[in-house]
Amino acid sequence: MGKAEGQVLVKAENLKRYFRVEAGLFSRGKARWVHAVDGVNLHIRKKEIFGLVGESGCGKTTVGKLFLGLERPTSGSVYFDGVDISKLSREELRKLRREMGIVYQHPQSSLNPRMLIEETLRRPIEIHKLAKNEQEKKRMILDVLDEVGIERYLLERYPHELSGGQQQRIAIARILLLNPKFIVLDEPTSALDVLVQAHVLNILSNLHEKFGFSYLFISHDLDVVEHISDRMAVMYVGKIVELARKKDLRRRAMHPYTRSLLAAVPIPDPRKKMKKREILRGEVPSAISPPRGCRFHPRCPHAMDICRKKEPKFKDVGGGHYVACYLFKSSR
Ligand code: SF4
Q: Which residues make Cβ contacts (< 8 Å) with residue 64, sequence separation at least 6?
């Protein structure tokens, strides 16, 4: 059985997360809400790398936090290994979180600047009582350093003495110690230069091969997401607009927004023809008052009357490919 057909590990059902905005001078005291995540349905299978791509502010980071129980949904559910995490008590959720981890874009924000790297790695082992004795603790730290390709002398350094790539690998190592089933990678390579980015992506791929975690890989960079993922979804103003296997998305991108993202990715081989560029008008709309109907209609070169009135359904167009657009018919 291929990864694409494997068992589901994490599942979101009609997931919504709205954030209240303080009433401003011109809002006449009425509460306003940011519709950060607005009806997301998706699942990630065991051992799958699922890519979530979209522009900054589209809600993808909030999806990652909802999946880990770091945010509570406004409505809808998240299931982890069949358990509805929104129904768990704080203590139950804390226990479950051992099976999950998150790597942020800026590792320095998750590493304590006053702790030596050795202490940073020692802490989770002690908190979760993962080692029987000092010798085992030491061995676990050295093993995990080898897994992420960090030299041992760096254990005696503070985070600020490490490069961005080394800091990110320490952040990954700290998660590995807990032997999780699921890791959210939130723009893990965006703050790194291109060479270091490729190195960290290779480490993540190798760890996935070796340990079989499921990843949710979040990025604004479609090229990076495509490089590492099995399946991918494209998000726009709180909604998923297209989801497919990565090769399918490249060959048969349907949604005009996906097509515009793909056309913006530079093609290294000049002999290959550029895809016909979908011209995008205007700016990304505000998630406080998203457009009626299809949220993409103010920018879409194919917008029709119905697009302005009624939201398109997320349709199955065959082969595990889904799209929310009136230009395409359901295969069912
Ligand atoms: Fe464009 Fe209409 Fe499709 Fe939305 S539903 S992407 S506006 S054609």
A: 52, 102, 184, 186, 216, 218
Q: Is the pTM of this model over 0.85?
A: yes
Domains of the chain: 8-236 (3.40.50.300)
Catalogue the long-range contacts made by 127-130 (C-beta closer than 8 Å, 24 or more residues apart): 128/98, 128/178, 130/177, 130/178
Give distance in angstroms: CA of 155 to centre of ligand 1. 53
157: DSSP letter: S
How many residues in total does the chain contain? 332
300 lines ligand 1 (CB under 6 A): yes
Please write the tens of the pLDDT for every residue from 302-331.
Answer: 999 999 999 999 999 999 999 999 999 887
Longest dimension (CA), the chain: 69
Sheet containing strand 231-236, edge to edge, reads 100-103, 182-186, 214-219, 49-53, 231-236, 239-245, 321-323, 315-318
